[in-house]
Amino acid sequence: MSRSTRTAGALAACSIAATIALTGCGGDGTGATGGAATSAGAAAPVKVGLITKTETNPFFVKMKEGAEAAAKAEGAELMTAAGKFDGDNASQITAIENMVAAGVKGILITASDSKAIVPAIQKARAAGVMVIALDSPVEPQNATDALFATDNLKAGQLIGEYAKSLMAGEPAKIATLDLAPGIAVGRLRHDGFLKGFGIAEGDPSIVCSQDTGGDQAKGQTAMENCLQKAPDVNLVYTINEPAALGAYTALKAKGREKNVVIVSVDGGCTGTKAVQSGQIAATSQQYPLKMADQGVKAVVAFGKGGAKASGYTDTGVTLISDKPAAGVESKDTAFGLQNCWG
Question: Which residues form the Periplasmic binding protein domain (predicted)?
């Protein structure tokens, strides 16, 4: 779906787009392109692949940081790739093929298209490569060996419950700023929000729905479109914090920012600061660094003769707000800033 960057030293220089030749990142930080140099008789480092939707979204930047740190700690060789944009399935397919050819033991992937990527994943698994989905499942979920992710339905439900409590019985005029068709994380968060708010798809309180691709500029345009269609919007659900900040910009331009509630998902440092400043009322914080850290360790364990990871590992979600709502458990932004995407 949907949704503060710090580099990790020399290892970060090893990351490239999926459409370019992949580069290995040795656990010693040398960035060797082949197998890392080893002493006589020493086992070669386990090769781990990480494929994210993009390289620019801060969420995936943090995920890559987690993978780089874990690979260095485990003495593994990390290869990274990304799509040119959110939804770039073709580049992710190319990255999978290149990583399999390079001899990775496992691939960690945040799928741009949860259905269209499945045949490429199946080929990788048939070649003996363990594939772990990060952040959101593919469809069907068992097309990967395992899933390490936020419970995105719960993330949406938390902000839905919060918004319902905050509205305190006032009739809602809801705009949903969604991700894009065919992406499981977007649908799960959207459905969770509706569940938490206590309404079904098609409810008349939903006065506008627009796709944003999780992009701030597109979020602003989407909100502008919604304000033209329904000027009395008073509640905005957003797939992630870039979309939320775009919505806030559009609302502020119309002088509506003070009387519209915006809720979101991600809990990045920038987004948490937006909650602290009052631009966003609440956000569901997730932990991409933890997803990548656990994923790398699982691949290394498999590469050293361990069992394949399997099933779903919930990496946690916390509602962040400085305006607690009755009956909804949350943490304040001080907690959020201490833990943003950690």
Answer: 48-304
So what's the pLDDT on residue 7? Answer: 35
Q: Whose CA is closest to 78, among 40, 28, 43?
A: 28
For 328, the 3-state DSSP assignment is coil
Q: Which CATH superfamily is domain 9-150+287-309 in?
A: Response regulator (3.40.50.2300)
Q: E strand or H helix at 278, and its extent?
A: none
**Nearest in space to 321 (alpha carbons), one of 150, 157, 162:** 162
Q: 152-285+319-339: same fold as 9-150+287-309?
A: yes
**pLDDT number for residue 56:** 86
What's the first-to-final CA gap in the chain, in angstroms?
19
Contact 64, 37 (CB under 8 A): no
Give the helix/strand (H/E) hosting 68. Answer: helix 58-74
Q: What is the mean pLDDT of each run of 10 residues along the chain (342 residues)?
A: 38 37 39 39 88 90 95 98 92 98 98 94 98 94 96 97 96 97 90 98 98 95 98 97 97 97 96 98 96 98 96 96 95 97 80
Q: From residue 62, give the alpha-carbon distance in Å to each of 222, 267, 319.
A: 26, 12, 19
